[in-house]
Amino acid sequence: MKTKNLLFVFAVLVLLTACTSYLTQVASCKKIDNRLVGVWVGSEKDKQIEGIHKNWEMNRRADGTFTLDFQFSQNGQVLQTIETGNWWIEKGKFYEFHQESGQTDAYDYTVLGPNQVKFKAIAISIEMNADSYEFIDTRK
After folding, report:
1. Is 109:119 a contact under the CB 8 Å cutoff?
2. Fewer CB within 10 A of the terminal residue: the chain, N end or C end?
3. Phi and psi at residue 91, to the nearest 5°
4. pTM to 2 decimals?
């Protein structure tokens, strides 16, 4: 009976370790999800601001830093901005601290496959055109 209990506990520990093996602790003592590391692209139109089309390229690094290159277009005018900061996972949520604004955005995220991740805003620092904001990043 004791052996069965030990085997059960061992099996549960192995399962829990396997389920969270994609999480890694970085120098800041925060954890990242290795599945999100890499260069990702996405786009949206009218979701944040009516009449604005937005494209982005997000480079999430394994050290928990990021570079986010945005292109906004409206009525033929194009504006490009680059943001930098830190990203991490905490309690199953994705967080993004933007150095330029000093603000942190929070998202629920779902890994749809090795090359797509869906994000749904919980709290973001900019005004929204809609009640909820979702987007999909695709690995470049």
Report:
1. yes
2. N
3. 55, 40
4. 0.79
